[in-house]
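Quick log. Single chain, no ligands specified.
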Amino acid sequence: MHARTIDSLALDSYQRAARVILANHLITRSYPDRIALPLLRRWATELREDLAELFGYRLEVTETTARLFPVLDRLESGRPARTPGDRVFDRRRYAYLSLALAALGRAGDQITLSELADQVASYATRVDGLELSTDRAADRDAFVDAVAWLAARGALTLADGDAGGWAADPEAGEALYDIDRAVVFAIFRPPRVLQHLRSVRGLFEDESDSGTSASTPQARAADARRVRRALVERPVVYARELTESERVQLGTEKVVAEVEMLTGLRAERRAEGVALIDTSGRFSDVRFPSTGTLAQVALLLVGEIADLVLDIDNPVERRRRPAPATTLADALDEAIPESTVFTPLAISTDPIAAQDDSDIQDEPDRAGADADYPVVPMSWIRETVQALTDRYGSTFAAQWQADVPGLTREVLALLERLHLVEPLAAGDETHSAATDSEPALLILPALARYRGAVVTVRTRAKSELFASASALGDHAYPAQKGS
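-> predicted structure:
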């Protein structure tokens, strides 16, 4: 491993390069910033070898791009594409993005926004249920969001005009883009031809893991790679989500220490699992605790949940973590149109499912099968968020002050994304009679990390306010600090 041999004065630079490529997977001259690509190019040789050895990842670096090709062990829904306004992509935007990439792959050096829209609209007619009509504002907005995603990564560079003007009125507005073909080709490079796959599990690939017996050194090395991948890809690695042999690797000091050395992050160990702690704030796609209404309300809610769970005088219900009825992979497989599969070369077998205990998300609770987790009713969650809003609402962003249900949904989505809670549907078989009439939240162990959150209320001085003394309570600003 090269990180051990790099001079201590240069180690920080190497670790920053590792964090950048692991966090972004695609680096261009402008994305995520202008210093990232020179940094990657400086350490390209060492990173290429370390990423292959530790994770089984392949790194390609050119003069204009750096592209990491990771290995998937399971599908994650917590890192979606987002619009410039930070809204999560919906199915239509994903479809327009895919079709725009197909069109740009056949284009020249420049293209107008209207030309690209016409090509995407033409391709969309071949997909059942999809359409791009430039007469509809919603379609234009979705298409411009997909184009903006490409522009942010350097695949397109605005040469003239304004995409917003075209979105407002395609007859009056126009935009001209330069195309960076190297970036276009780097963005989407699947390990297998999609038309040959009958299951998305065919995209799970680590050729070095195949054909190994569980007792061989090769199998142990493969388990170690899967554990390292989990450490850098998941907010928390719970031991119960791993196979028995993977749990052995997670418990070894060497495997975790290698990831710490490469990334410069610190591993926090608990009985339930391991999490990498990003004190730099540059590795995680979601920083928590953080600023902003959602993050602050989430931290306040976490503190309230922790107090509820730890109240020995009023114990909460505890239940096992249920297995999901339908995995994300199964849901995606059901959506694959059979007409798009090229039957003569179709891959009908699942190379991952064929291996024992390798599809993690289909087999939860392998470790600690009898472990119980606290369950909190959603009615309590809604009441608590309402109470927090009543107390601190004047400090919230305007959009959330009058939308407590929406605030509750977004806060819970954030906590679920961080693997701190997990929703339980109403009537789930793990519920008791006391809670089976409504949905609830399963509280996961990592939430306890924030149980010591301290809230201080800073009030503006009287000289700062044009208000009477009785109104000072409406100008309180909560400041949170996580333990």
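Residues 42 and 89 are 34 Å apart (CA to CA).
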